[in-house]
């Protein structure tokens, strides 16, 4: 698949997604982050991780909870998926500079 086909496919997949979640969905998506802040991230196991990264424009530290698709306990690697594709701010931020910290539940 060439670059133009990839971009077209990405537009087809992500065009129905809103650019930002509404307030209720935003709160639900932030629940794992609140659990990590309360030191209760262990309740989530390896189902979620908390990515700490720096904003590419602001330079501010950001914390983003991500759902884990696959976790390998031997290598301690996790595979995550971006629901908003390459438009997600966290994805663009880690493209600009490496993540500062990755926390998992256990």
General description of the model:
The chain has three helices and four strands, in the order ααβββαβ. It starts with a helix and ends with a strand. The protein has helices at 3-14, 23-37, 89-96; strands at residues 48-54, 61-72, 77-80, 101-104. 33% of the residues lie in helices and 25% in strands. It has one domain: Pnp Oxidase, Chain A. The protein is of the alpha+beta class. The chain has a four-stranded antiparallel β-sheet.
CATH-assigned homologous superfamily: Electron Transport, Fmn-binding Protein, Chain A
Q: Indicate the CATH architecture.
A: Roll
Largest sheet, spatial ordering of strands: 3-2-1-4
| Main beta sheet strand tally, sense and closure | 4 strands, antiparallel
Count of discrete structural domains: 1
State the gist of this model.
The protein has 106 residues and is an alpha+beta fold. It has helices at 3-14, 23-37, 89-96, and strands at residues 48-54, 61-72, 77-80, 101-104.
Using brief descriptors, characterize the structure shown.
106 residues, alpha+beta, Pnp Oxidase, Chain A, 4-stranded antiparallel sheet, 3 helices, 25% strand
């Amino acid at each position: 698949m060439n670059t133009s086909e990839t971009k077209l496919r990405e537009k087809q997949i992500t065009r129905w997604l809103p650019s930002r979640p509404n307030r209720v969905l935003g709160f639900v998506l932030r629940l794992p982050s609140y659990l990590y802040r309360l030191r209760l991230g262990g309740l989530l196991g390896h189902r979620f991780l908390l990515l700490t990264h720096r904003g590419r424009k602001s330079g501010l530290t950001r914390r983003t909870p991500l759902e884990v698709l696959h976790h390998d306990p031997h290598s301690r690697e996790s595979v995550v998926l971006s629901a908003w594709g390459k438009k997600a701010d966290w994805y663009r931020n880690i493209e600009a500079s490496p993540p500062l910290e990755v926390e998992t539940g256990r």
